[in-house]
Amino acid sequence: MSLFTPSQLSTIKNRIQNNPESLVIICFCAAWCDTCREYETNFAQLAQEITQHTFVWVDIENNPELLGDEDVEDFPTIAIQNTNENLFYGVQLPYTNLLESLIENCAKQSATVVSGPPIIAKI
Predict the structure, then answer these.
(1) What is the pLDDT of residues 26-42, one digit of tens each?
(2) CA-CA distance, 114 to 89, in Å (whole number)?
(3) Does 89 fall in a domain?
């Protein structure tokens, strides 16, 4: 599967509804950020490799509403959600092997984090 953007919100929501066991992995970045530009290619590659989950790339300056009341302190900031809650929200080093491990851990656990952006499946 490919990397989604907020302009594809209806497609994202349909995909989530059709795959309720999958996770949504959101990368919050900014176009001006060199680290983000470098990471986007790797994040997109991971989206093609881990097709059971939905990967979304969000430029926080173009879509600040997807953050809700949350702030981004550094880039990249990752949110991992299921259909009802945030499982992870925080800054992640821009290495896909670390993100893969984080995704695996979130898929195994049901613990949630208190903070995080709005659940994309409910927007």
Answers:
(1) 999 999 999 999 999 99
(2) 9
(3) yes
Residue range of the domain that includes 65 = 6-122
- HEC assignment per residue over 8-65: HHHHHHHHHHHCCCCCEEEEEECCCCHHHHHHHHHHHHHHHHCCCCEEEEEECCCCHH
d(C-alpha 8, C-alpha 90), whole Å: 24
CA atoms of 40 and 29, how far apart (whole Å): 9
Peptide bond into 76 cis (omega under 30): yes
Into how many domains does the chain fold? Answer: 1
| pLDDT tens profile 74-96 | 999 999 999 989 999 999 999 99
- Alpha carbon separation from 93 to 18, 57, 84, 87, 118 (Å, rounded): 31, 16, 25, 17, 22
Query: Has residue 1 been placed in a domain?
Result: no
